[in-house]
Structures are given as structure tokens and as C-alpha cells.
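Troubleshooting log. The previous structure file for this entry was overwritten by mistake, so regenerating from the original sequence record. Sequence copied from the archived sheet and checked twice against the printout by T.R.
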Amino acid sequence: MNGGFWICPRCGVVHGADPQPALTLERRLAGIDSKLAQLTSQEVLNMATVQQVQQQVTDLQDSVAKETTVTQSVLTLIQGLGGTIGSLQTQLADAIKANDPAAIQAVSDALMAVKSTLDQNTQTLADAVTANTPPPATP
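Regenerated output below.
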């Protein structure tokens, strides 16, 4: 017996001379149940928020990966063009030194092909940048 009441092991009911302690215990248990339900509800909300943040981080990482891929592609294109132009300069110098009109024309044709490719790639890149640039925010 503790504090004038006791819990019957057979029926689980609180017995005692004064019913007030048993009612107080029931109220406290009800309050604990209510607080536990609130905490559980809050934990569900917190988990949803964490999942939203995780999804936003994943989306951001995907965007960065795509941006990096596009940037690397542009760099490869520019570096490749630099190498091609350097090679054509050497070929043109050799053709001029040899006074070979056919070789000079071949280099000229190759330069025009590079220019055409560069123009096409410039337009493709400009279109992609325009399509993927959000409009400015209006105040």
C-alpha cells in the first residue's frame, strides 16, 4: 500500500480508502497521454520538414550536376576550338611558306567550316541560356 491506495494485481483497478488519489493519478495519466500524442504529432511534422529539406538538397545537387556538365561541355568545346584554330594556323603558315595555293585553299575551307560550327554552337548555347534563365523578379 502506498499513499492510501493500491493497484489490485487481479483486476488492475486502483483501490484505496480515499478515491481522490486514484482520480489524480488518472488525470495525470490522461495528461501524459495527451502530451505524448502532441509530441508524436510534432515529430511527424518535423519528419515531413526534414524530408522536404532533404528533397530540396537533392534537387539542388541535381541542378549543380547538370550545370557542371553543361559548363564542362562548353569548356571542352572552347578548348577544342582553340586547338583546331592553332592547328589551322600552323597549316596556313606552312602552306604560305610552300607557296601552295591548294593547301592555302584547304586551310581557308577548314577555317570556314570551323566558323560555321562556331556560329551554330554559339546560337545553340545562346538559345539554351535564354531558355533556362528565369525572368527577372518584378518588384
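The chain has two helices and two strands. Archived copy saved in two places this time.
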